[in-house]
Design goal:
The protein contains six helices and 17 strands. Helices cover 18% and strands 32% of the residues. With 295 residues, it is an alpha+beta fold.
Length: 295
Amino acid sequence: MNNSVYILEDRAIIYINGLDAKDFLQNLISNDINKVTDNSSCFASLLTPQGKFLYEFIVVKHKSGYFIDCEKSQSEEIFKQFSLYKIRSKVEILNLSNEFVVASFGYEKYISIDGSKDILGFTFKYREDPIILDPRNKNLGARLIINLEKLYLSLKKLDLKDDKIENYHIQSHELGIVSKNLNKLKNKLFGIECNYEELCGIDFKKGCYVGQENTARIKLKNKLSKRLLPVHIIDGELIEDEKIYNNGVEIGKVLIDDEYPFALIKFSDKNFNKDLIFKGKKGSFKIFIPQWLKI
């Protein structure tokens, strides 16, 4: 069993609390807040009114409110966006990133802990702190959200050994799930093109939320023609927003060009073939389709 744990210092925790917290979130996020209980957490996103991607996060029940586990580079903007929608709602929005930290460890380790269940998003308390089986894909392992002061004692009791955060990002990228540089996706693609249906991040049965109309239309009219897919660089480098061609036809665009790259690809175009090596201005690369994505 792998006892590695990754302290995700690039994650932030926002806390939404108050009488209207549940309804407030239900009217905004792409998933159904009713799924979030003491024993269940969910993955969700905040979209533009047109259904374009803005932010994504994991929602976890905490006391009388909800933890929002998000990428730190997006946290200030998420805080501002929630505050913008607050208006007269009885909610309190706090940034608790200086107090709480997110630690991630493997699925096998998670399943060996008393109280765990093999259910996506399953949540239980370990010494009063929530452990969550990642609601997107169980191969991402589990997350512990914990007060910084208690972190190392709990890791010791769980027999977890601190590992490099880069290894977490490598695993996520190999799975085909974005874990870094989410700001590079902002406003550049629809939420549904981020594979949120397959990652359990959209509920098509819930009522209205910001961006719901276009999201539902793309789904119902079978208009989903592009998807966010991971890229393996063979040599050289990628350029952000560089267009990808095959046979002189544009089949996609590089959105994240850093060490864990992703591109928006016209996956059903006859000029796209996952086995091809594509040439860019400064390098060559392959685009791969994750196993969990049945396209």
